[in-house]
Design goal:
- The chain has 344 residues and is an alpha/beta fold.
- It contains 13 helices and 12 strands.
- It folds into 2 domains: 160 residues, Rossmann fold, CATH 3.40.50; 159 residues, Up-down Bundle (Dehydroquinate synthase-like, alpha domain).
- A 7-stranded mixed beta sheet has the order 1-2-9-6-5-3-4. Strands 10-11-12 form a 3-stranded antiparallel beta sheet. A two-stranded antiparallel sheet has the order 7-8.
- The longest helix has 18 residues.
Length: 344
């Protein structure tokens, strides 16, 4: 078993690899616990959940990250009798982790929680770092808080039941980790691009472990995103806007956003032409871009609603070189101008 630790002033969170997801149940035995999952995960794995632990299943997808869903779950937890000594176990992908973490953080002013991460996207990114949020009025994660899970279990065996389309959502965030902080990991992804683009899971374990190490290091230094943690938003400013405009999957949107950010980095003189072409070609080869055309004018109009907005600007993430990211405050008008003048 391998372990990555995320330290914060309030908690120590551990991300575990190489252990069966079912061993997690030993951690919640003997306390009033509840499992939050979605209908797909419940259908596939529900028969293996521990007997006697109540299960609350939500509809899969971003629509469930809503105030009404939170209210419904909390009402059920009150009826079940979960008290302040209770424990919330989220079993699912990014949406379930967001919901379970948010509910646990606000229920009776906070109870402990942990995750069994079932998708590549959540193993690489969503389940680690302590961000828990829900959507309101078409804005992603506009209500949320920072609170670390006690543990995250990443069992690669669970990825075998993942639909191929969901695999590629996680591949985007895996690539992001390499692009912002680890040239060696990036070169490994390039060398394995043929296997990764065909959804071959054999090399995934080591890649996910390294990506989580990168994120844990960043989060430990800057849990609440006042500085270095902003680099984890690479591709997300343009990507989130495209996701909301077109209701496309998060990973596809981030891939498109990373492609735009690479070209912006080149146009601002940070990234060489050769590196820009190499990275753009890699993204295009990995089957992670949206399957529909994106109207850049529409996306440009949406950027002003980004939750990361700071006054009239956004701390945009650029690449100085492959594996080296930095942020610069860029006006929203300049971000929109770039999009409207560039063909992606």
């Amino acid at each position: 078993m391998r372990r990555v630790v995320v330290e914060s002033p309030a908690t120590v969170s551990e991300v575990l690899f190489g252990c069966s997801w079912q061993t997690t149940f030993e951690r919640i035995e003997g306390r009033g616990s509840v499992i939050i999952t979605d209908h797909n995960i419940d259908r596939i794995y529900g028969a293996l959940f521990p007997k006697g632990v109540p299960v609350i299943a939500v509809k899969p997808g971003e629509e469930s990250k809503s105030i009404s869903t939170i209210e419904d779950i909390v009402s059920q937890m009150v009826s079940i009798g979960i008290d302040r000594e209770g424990f919330v176990l989220g079993i699912g992908g990014g949406v379930v982790c967001d919901i379970a973490g948010f509910v646990a953080s606000v229920y009776m002013r906070g109870v402990e929680f942990g995750f069994i991460s079932t998708s590549l996207l959540s193993q690489v990114d969503a389940s680690t770092g302590g961000k828990n949020g829900i959507n309101v009025s078409g804005s992603k994660n506009v209500i949320g808080l920072f609170n670390q899970p006690r543990f995250v279990i990443c069992d690669s065996a669970m990825l075998k039941t993942l639909p191929e389309s969901e695999y590629f959502q996680g591949l985007s965030e895996l690539l992001k980790a390499a692009l912002i902080a680890d040239r060696e990991l990036l070169e490994t992804i390039i060398s394995l691009s043929g296997q990764l683009s065909s959804a071959d899971l054999s090399p995934i374990d080591d890649l996910v472990f390294r990506a989580v190490e990168i994120k844990a290091s960043v989060v430990t230094r800057d849990e609440r995103e006042h500085g270095v943690r902003r680099i984890l938003n690479f591709g997300h400013t343009f990507g989130h806007a495209a996701e909301l405009c077109y209701n496309i999957p998060h990973g596809n949107a981030v891939a498109w956003g990373m492609l735009a950010a690479i070209k912006f980095s080149r146009s601002e003189g940070y990234l060489s032409g050769e590196d820009s072409e190499t990275l753009a070609g890699l993204i295009e080869s990995l089957n992670i871009l949206p399957d529909k055309s994106i109207d850049v004018d529409r996306v440009a109009d949406r950027i002003q609603y980004d939750k990361k907005r700071s006054g009239e600007g956004i701390h945009f993430v650029f690449l100085r070189s492959p594996g080296e990211a930095f942020t610069r405050l860029v006006s929203i008008s300049d971000l929109a101008l770039f999009l409207r003048s560039f063909k992606l």
